[in-house]
Amino acid sequence: MRLSTTLTGLLGLLPTALAACTREALLASAEIYIAAQRTGKTDGLKLASNFTYRENNKVIDISKGVLGSTALVLDTNRSTADTVACASYTMLISSGGAKPYILATQLRHDDGDPSTITMIDTIAATTGSLFFNAKKTLGYIQAESWAPLATADQPSRDLLKKVGDAYLDMWTDKNAADTIPWGTDCERVEGSSLTKPCGASLPHGGSSQPNAMRRYVIDEVIGSVDVLCAFNSLGNYPDSHEIRLEGGKVKYVHTITV
Ligand SMILES: *[C@@H]1O[C@H](CO)[C@@H](O)[C@H](O)[C@H]1NC(C)=O
Ligand SMILES: *[C@@H]1O[C@H](CO)[C@@H](O)[C@H](O)[C@H]1NC(C)=O
């Protein structure tokens, strides 16, 4: 009797909890985050009681991070949504001002209530970061299309995760590069460094240090995966790798590395 009551209770809750984390809700939360970064004030954000702010792979007080301390004039923003992980990814570019920034941010939410943020996880690149030139990066980014893909063209979540992992494994696994479906006209924008086609000059192992601390935002509709990590293969660098597939093949790769 008690068991069946519990089960009924759980089944009653389940569909609501899963349905709540919609693409629209995640993108709306990302917009609130972007607005907060414009002002450098965090009072508009709905943060969970166990909220964590991480910047460049270190947990710090939000008021000390770029989000809580710096108003940025933004040139562009672009967000993706992961309805399974109840998370989003946003890329922001602020190229003017004394201190330009390129931010790669994942928001994680309470999966029963996507308006409540449990974690803001940012890679904040600025002057001195790898190949950093925000104006140059902006030029490349603005020429790209990240429009939603037609349903038949959307890669599976599984493929997106595999491509993201294989990419980060190239430095430690000599065979990883050959498992990636490179598009012939793909572009790689690493900081502000452009490589086209992106399948040219790839690493084939050589490091014994795997890239660690991988956090994923996977969006089948946009055909993208973003992975934040500690890029340990070449040193301990806070890093974001974002990849978009079109027609089942890699179209864009963006890296933001501190
Ligand atoms: C993000 O960029 C879009 C244009 O792509 C713009 O309409 C929107 O206002 C921007 N969001 C914020 C919060 O600035
Ligand atoms: C924080 O609380 C939310 C519920 O509000 C829960 O979903 C999440 O797992 C918690 N996170 C941690 C790290 O405890």
Automatic annotation (TrEMBL):
**Where does the signal sequence lie?**
1-19
Outline the extent of the DUF8021 domain.
154-257
Swiss-Prot/TrEMBL keywords: Signal
Taxonomically, the superkingdom here is: Eukaryota
Output the Pfam families linked to this UniProt entry: DUF8021
Indicate what this protein is called per its UniProt record.
Answer: H/ACA snoRNP pseudouridylase subunit
Q: Which organism is it from?
A: Sporothrix stenoceras
